[in-house]
Design goal:
The protein is mainly alpha-helical. It contains 4 helices and 3 strands.
Length: about 160
Amino acid sequence: MPPSSFLHFSHSLVKLSGVPQVPRLWGKHRFLLPQTSGPLFLVAKKKSSKDLPPLNEADLEEQFVRGSGPGGQATNKTSNCVVLKHLPSGIVVKCHQTRSLDQNRERAREILQEKVDVFYKGETSEVVKERKELQKKKQIKRQQARENLERKRQLKELQALEDK
């Protein structure tokens, strides 16, 4: 079930009590919702609005394997690691980011969708363009940091010369 339909569903459940109320979210999740009294399902949008091609479920081969890594017995005994294979392109994605099978399935599909987009579109893909833009921003920040360090070094040298 996509997150937007879950939010829409939970909003309709809250209305069943007779008085429409916004569900309370505690901890880090309360910051996910705007502080308005509008309908809850209108704000459920993806962070990035990429135009990614939809995945056809008939083209996917899905397997559930046992997880590994930190988490102890609960992680290692359950088959909540998702392995998705896109049959036309041969791309394989393995996702074991959470202990929840449903969340791993959803995240694996998102990752596979991005990889398929890059596979078919290449350099014109939105994912590639976004990564290049982030790399440029990072490079600019590094250059600015180097320049600031150089200025500070020169300032210290000038102060040391003046003190003499």
